[in-house]
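Q: Protein A?
A:
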Amino acid sequence: MAAELVEAKNMVMSFRVSDLQMLLGFVGRSKSGLKHELVTRALQLVQFDCSPELFKKIKELYETRYAKKSVEPSPQVPRPLDPLALHSMPRTPLSGPTVDYPVMYGKYLNGLGRLPTKALKPEVRLVKLPFFNMLDELLKPTELVPQSTEKLQESPCIFALTPRQVEMIRNSRELQPGVKAVQVVLRICYSDTSCPQEDQYPPNIAVKVNHSYCSVPGYYPSNKPGVEPKRPCRPINLTHLMYLSSATNRITVTWGNYGKSYSVALYLVRQLTSSDLLQRLKTIGVKHPELCKALVKEKLRLDPDSEIATTGVRVSLICPLVKMRLSVPCRAESCAHLQCFDAVFYLQMNEKKPTWMCPVCDKPAAYDQLIIDGLLSKILSECEDADEIEFLAEGSWRPIRAEKEPSCSPQGPILVLGTSDANGLPPASSTPGVGGSVGSSLGGAGSGAGAAGGPENGRPGADVVDLTLDSSSSSEDDDEDDEDDEDDDEGPRPKRRCPFQKGLVPAC
């Protein structure tokens, strides 16, 4: 039964529009639409509602078509044959319906995107994704054509994997539990042929693989008021829901028809990690230090039209992404700055949320444009005690280290060497020793206290209490304080001037 089913599908794939219309009319199905729509309906009919009568009708139409073709006279005009054209010429069966049909493994059987060979319509192309290495193309980009006027449409697709492709999937390593590195992914984009298209989901998208729905990335919540949430449009992994055998897989894409045209494609890919891309970048993306040095000289070359001469340019050794010291200095060749960012963190961030924007100048920095600065890598290994360097005009460099600010605190305790006289100056002493000065200060404590108690030049002196004096001296001081209190009754006490303005030296 499986052989008959494959044979019937191959016959349907070779039908013309008139044959397809006759077959669909035979079972009471709609005969309107383009050829790829008719092929889709016929294949669905064969896959799910194939009966002996239907198989007999398909065989009858196939025999009738090739019977007409065999009686047509062949052209007698000799033409030189192109050796390259021999491989693309269609093979005519020699014995009618008993021809050996090729097995349609690895090709889409629904004919969803199959157009007549004479139509030279440009094909839709999708952008190359750094984290996905394409192995095989299972379904070319095919436009989603609405079948009715309803807003919600369904587009089915039927295909099978080859034994080699199944083996590749089963033997591939696991990126995480249940996720293989070799995957069958579905990509959707706008039907625009002017340039390679990025992945873009249609509204109300839902993907059903065989009998189960596949999860589709949801929306990112927006923290800004009035800004709609965005959905990360990425390839959809279908591998875990597929039949990893020779059986055909049915994929149904449900989408909202709101005026825009979309195309879908199926690929067999190998998913890479940020570590894989980093290793590849270190292998093929390192720029020689001499080339980087020439770029520095070019940046610092004197412009004759400029009135300001640039003698140097500063470059930070701190990554602007994570504020840590650079380990693999990297930048895009399209960037005009010398500042680098860390390739390790840049690839990890784009693995989670692919934006591929330079963190220094906010311009596109695709993976294919990234280079590792060999000169800055050498500087990082030689200069470990600085976070910034300066490139000079001749291509050399010098580290810029932060200068330590001097401390304003005193280095030791302060000793008072003497009291001030009436003019606020310390008394002169013929004894250079510190002990003599201290002794004279203690010996003249009574007179010093008296001088300090009265106003000097309109300014009051500071009260000095000497704990080495006896009780009699304390009583004298109390009497002097009483006199000062009496003076306070007469009027406001004038401000006193501190007698110890000079004569302070550090004890050490």
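Q: Protein B?
A:
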Amino acid sequence: MMMYPYIKLGPRDGVLIISIFIMLVLTLIFKWSVWEFSFSVIAVIISFLAGNMKPNKKNVLAFLKK
């Protein structure tokens, strides 16, 4: 049962939210600056987006067909 069905969060979104929450906790524990927190969150988001990228299999094996 979904509490907020209009949000439509999936498991990948949950992992991203948890990782950003961990960065916030690390910021509070180790007293990082706002810049360090921002850079770490940006790095997590970039790695999340890079993990979603799928290679085009047609172009990867194009050199073998020639």
